[in-house]
Design brief:
The structure is a single chain. By secondary structure, this protein is mainly alpha-helical. It folds into 2 domains: 233 residues, Orthogonal Bundle (Endonuclease III, domain 1), CATH 1.10.340.30; 56 residues, Orthogonal Bundle (Arc Repressor Mutant, subunit A), CATH 1.10.10.10. The chain contains 15 helices and 3 strands. A 3-stranded antiparallel sheet has the order 1-3-2. α2 crosses α3, α9 crosses α11 and α14 packs across α15.
C-alpha cells in the first residue's frame, strides 16, 4: 500500500457504507500534545477528507469490501507501484476469485499469474495464507489475522480498515509523510511514536476514507520530492542484482516446466556456481525443488 502513483488524480470511487468493528481499540486521547488538539485534528480531517472527496484515485480495490480482495491488493502493493498493480489485480482475481481457489491451485499457476510484479515470495506467502485460513475465510480480528502466514501488523490492520472500516491506524510511507508534514512532527519520530500519533488522529467511524485520503494526498500532493521526507528504507537497484537473477531463473523454470542447472547457467549467462547459488536461494524460500540436476517449481 505504500506504492505511489504518479500522474493525474481521479475522483474517489463509490465508497462502501461505513461499518464498525467491535474489535477496534478505544480512541487514544489527544489532549496530551498541543500538536494533536481536537481543533487541529478537526481541521485536518476536514481538509483531507474534503480533498479526497474530489480528488481521490479510482482504484479497483476501492470498489470492494471483500477481505480476500483487499488482502490481495495489499500484498501486491508491497514494494510495487500502483500502476503496475492496477494492470494485474483484476486478472489475478479472475483466475483465483476466492481464498479457496487460491489454496487449491498449483504453485506454478500462482507464480505464473504473479510474474512481472516482482518479489515472487509474496505469491507463495499469499497462497500459504489461503491454505491456513480457517474455512478459507479471513478472520475478522487483528490477532487471528496476524497469526496467518505472511500477514504482518501493517497488512492485518489494512485488511480490517478497508474491508470492515475498523478503527485502526495503519502507517505506510505516504501516511508518515502526510502526518509528519501536516502536524509538524519531528522527521525522526520513531515508528512506535508515529503509530501512536496516527491512532490519535484517526476520525472514528471513517477509517476507510481517512486512510485512502492520507495515501492519496501523500502520493499526489505531499510527495517525497515535495517534502524532502524520504522513505525509511529504499529498494536496491534491480538491474544486475541477485533479485533479478532469481526472477529470470524462476521465469525460465515456469516456462519450461523443468530446467537443468547447467542449462539455467547458460541461459542466464552465469557460472555454474553462481547459478547454483540462485537455485539454492529459491529452494530455501520454497519456490523450487532441486532433484539431481533438475530444477522444478514446487507443486504446492
Amino acid at each position: 500500500m505504500s506504492g505511489e502513483r504518479p500522474g493525474r488524480s481521479r475522483r474517489a470511487a463509490a465508497r462502501p457504507a461505513p461499518q464498525r468493528n467491535p474489535a477496534a481499540p478505544s480512541a487514544p486521547t489527544c489532549r496530551a500534545s498541543p500538536r494533536l488538539s481536537p481543533a487541529r485534528l478537526a481541521a485536518l480531517h476536514e481538509k483531507l477528507l474534503g480533498w479526497y472527496a474530489t480528488n481521490g484515485r479510482d482504484l479497483p480495490w476501492r470498489h470492494t469490501v471483500d477481505p480476500y480482495a483487499i488482502l490481495l491488493s495489499e500484498v501486491m502493493l508491497q514494494q510495487t507501484q500502483v500502476p503496475r498493480v492496477v494492470g494485474r489485480y483484476a486478472a489475478f482475481l479472475e483466475r483465483f476469485p476466492t481464498l479457496e481457489s487460491l489454496a487449491a491451485a498449483p504453485l506454478a499457476d500462482v507464480l505464473s499469474a504473479w510474474l512481472g510484479l516482482g518479489y515472487n515470495n509474496r505469491a507463495l506467502r499469499l497462497k500459504r495464507c489461503a491454505q491456513a485460513a480457517p474455512g478459507h475465510r479471513l478472520p475478522g480480528d487483528l490477532e487471528s489475522l496476524r497469526a496467518l502466514p505472511g500477514v504482518g501488523p501493517y497488512t492485518a490492520r489494512a485488511v480490517l480498515i478497508f474491508a470492515h472500516n475498523a478503527d485502526f491506524a495503519a502507517v505506510d510511507a505516504n501516511v508518515r509523510r502526510v502526518l509528519t508534514h501536516q502536524l509538524d512532527l519531528p522527521r525522526d519520530l520513531s515508528p512506535a511514536a508515529l503509530q501512536a500519533v496516527a491512532e490519535a488522529a484517526l476520525p472514528r467511524g471513517r477509517s476507510r476514507d481517512w486512510h485512502n485520503a492520507l495515501m492519496d494526498y501523500g502520493s499526489l500532493v505531499l510527495t517525497a520530492r515535495a517534502t524532502g521526507l524520504a522513505p525509511r528504507t529504499r529498494q536496491t537497484p534491480f538491474a544486475g542484482s541477485h533479485r533479478q537473477r532469481r526472477a529470470r531463473l524462476l521465469r525460465s523454470v515456469l516456462e519450461r516446466g523443468a530446467l537443468s542447472v547447467s542449462d539455467a547457467a547458460a541461459a542466464l549467462d552465469l557460472t555454474p556456481a553462481d547459478c547454483r547459488a540462485v537455485v539454492d536461494s529459491l529452494a530455501a524460500d520454497g519456490l523450487v525443488t532441486l532433484r539431481g540436476d533438475q530444477v522444478t517449481v514446487r507443486r504446492r
